[in-house]
Amino acid sequence: MLELAHDIGLLFEHWNLSLPLRHALLLYVAKVGNTSDIDRFIDSVAEPLSTHKEDTMTIAQQLHQRGFEQGMQEGMQEGMQEGMKSSALNIARQLLQNEMELELVQRVTQLSDEEMAQLLRSEQK
């Protein structure tokens, strides 16, 4: 999509689009076009603009903020899942040390067969 960014900027200049429409189009193109380098994409779109260059850069900042917020949310979610998995492993370890049956420990903690096998191997060391 990066190779079309300059042409998109020229079209924005020619059509004199409203800011909300420009924002929607940039967001759509960046998302659907699977743009990997959003900075270069926005710079290339803004380059041919004689007007509304600042507005386009503001849109870029909004896109960055959205990406940052999405990344933070995904990171928090991943961290929570890792924390829950760690807790389940600790609980399973304690239950096994208190001689609870293996199947019951697995059912209670919802650990997979592989996770239980790894836990048992680590406990034997």
Helix percent band = over 70%
What is the residue-mean pLDDT, rounded to a whole number? 78
What is the terminal separation in angstroms?
53 Å
Largest pleated sheet: none
- Total individual domains: 2
Describe the global form. Answer: rod-shaped
Percentage of β-strand residues:
under 5%
Give the ordered list of helices and strands. HHHHHH
CA gyration radius, whole angstroms: 25 Å
InterPro entries: Rpn/YhgA-like_nuclease
Protein name: Transposase
Organism: Pectobacterium parvum
GO molecular function, one term: double-stranded DNA endonuclease activity
Description:
With 125 residues, this protein is mostly helical. It has helices spanning 5-15, 19-32, 38-46, 53-97, 102-109, 113-124. The model has no long low-confidence stretch (mean pLDDT 78). The protein is built from 6 helices and no strands. The chain has 2 domains: 2-76, no CATH class; 82-124.
List keywords for this structure.
Rpn/YhgA-like_nuclease; single chain; 125 residues; double-stranded DNA endonuclease activity; rod-shaped; Transposase; mainly alpha; 6 helices; 2 domains
Outline the fold blueprint.
Elements: H1 5-15, H2 19-32, H3 38-46, H4 53-97, H5 102-109, H6 113-124
Helix pairs in contact: 1-3, 2-4, 3-4, 4-5
Protein name: Transposase
GO molecular function, one term: double-stranded DNA endonuclease activity
Organism: Pectobacterium parvum
